[in-house]
Fold each of these.
Amino acid sequence: MSNVTIFEHPLIKHKITLLRDKSTGTKDFRTLIEEIATLMGYEALRDLPLDQVEIETPICKTVQPMVAGKKLAIVPILRAGLGMVNGILALVPSAKVGHIGMYRDEKTHIPHEYYCKLPENIGERLIIVLDPMLATGGSAVDAINLIKQRGGKHIKFMSIIAAPEGVKALTEAHPDVEVYCGCLDERLNENAYIVPGLGDAGDRIFGTK
Ligand code: PRP
Ligand code: URA
């Protein structure tokens, strides 16, 4: 699994534990999702493209590196991926944001696409796909298929909690995609929910259940 990074940082572990706790309410849940995305993003964006720009210090003119924000696209998978967007924008405020709408059928667990809008010139951008949950991997695999069909090439995927089944499906379908997971859980249950997981991420972010 050379393309997979599982985070071991104590701050990320601590915040994921708070996220899992069923007594954590919507407001804190949202804050934690954003904070974890920022901490993970710091590592996932390690190879961000840089532009050389001229600035003037109090001493002299100089050419120095700055993040080429226009060359980056953040693509949350709706709904739950939305919760991670501001956490990444805190690091790269000028990044463009696309959206892919997917929902899992409750019985078959097969994902269905309902929306796709990506920034222009997608083929020239580093694309960061966001979804806090990588369960069967179906949503991530299909979302990345859509991005590739529209010309996306350099793609990374970030999830906060992953199941081994999802990591396997995603890396087999898209071996070129770098995968970042806040933690790797035990397994899926009979409803394809991650165990121990955190429940339904979308419902917990938006307070819909
Ligand atoms: C959840 C989650 C992922 C997907 C993961 O979304 O946010 O997109 O399930 O499961 P998978 O790896 O088995 O595909 P859901 O379909 O519940 O939609 P929602 O975010 O709108 O609640
Ligand atoms: N989607 C979620 O929100 N949670 C899971 O555990 C699996 C899929």
Amino acid sequence: MTRHETISLQPRLRGDYSATRADYTLDQHHATIPEADHATWRTLYARQSALLPAHAARAYRESLARLDVAQGVPDFEAASAQLRARTGFSLVAVPGLIPDGAFFEHLAARRFPVTVWIRRPEELDYIVEPDVFHDFFGHVPLLGEPAFADFMEAYGRLGQQADRIDALKPLARLYWFMVEFGLIREDGGLRAYGAGILSSSAETVWSTTSPEPRRLRFDITRVLRSDYDIHRIQPTYFVIEDYAELFACLHRVPALLEQARDAAPIPVGEADPADIPA
Ligand code: HBI
Ligand code: FE
């Protein structure tokens, strides 16, 4: 999204964009968060964390435990201090979705934008825009895993390049499938590490246990050509063996982006002859 698009989107976005700095960040004011918001966080945290031992990736679980954020909406400064020591990543507070350019710039500088507001109690099961539970509980723990942190910084740099060749759409597929909905094979089983999965109780179980979705070996060419639908539970997941795989393929992305930009995408949920089942 360009700055213009975000401004035109703003009336529909929930966050307060009026007080943001030029880089779309604002102050979290952790001390003034209402107790009701902390209670919503605790409810979401308790429900999701019950599913983690059986369904979440080890690196995610260990990092979430280190962050120690079960008691309420986390203090971004405290979490940043811990993350910085491990991978150099820090968190910046934002009002919600920000333009692609600003988002990529933060990632390239090892800063992860985290939304400051939390969903209302009646929205526990599903929200359209990412809130602090999706962004923090879903995305932040894996920023403490060095190989994944390297990938996220490199993704930010690629985003800046993709913007210049009008290839944001294919690049967004890499983020969607591997950052939001990625699975990893561990000890012979399937584990979720994607933020979109781990911040959704239904998808955490479905993605790792249902026989219905197609689960494919991660292949960067296939991912960049695969269309997706943000409004439905995923019909296709991609599985990695380790996080280093994500970074290792990035040198091929600039050339693949132009091909993916100009080719017909593989429709949502469809198979492709080159598919390798996970
Ligand atoms: N902004 N705050 C925020 N969080 C995101 O995850 C995000 C964004 N802007 C754009 C965006 N994601 C996607 O377009 C990525 O594919 C870049
Ligand atoms: Fe997300």
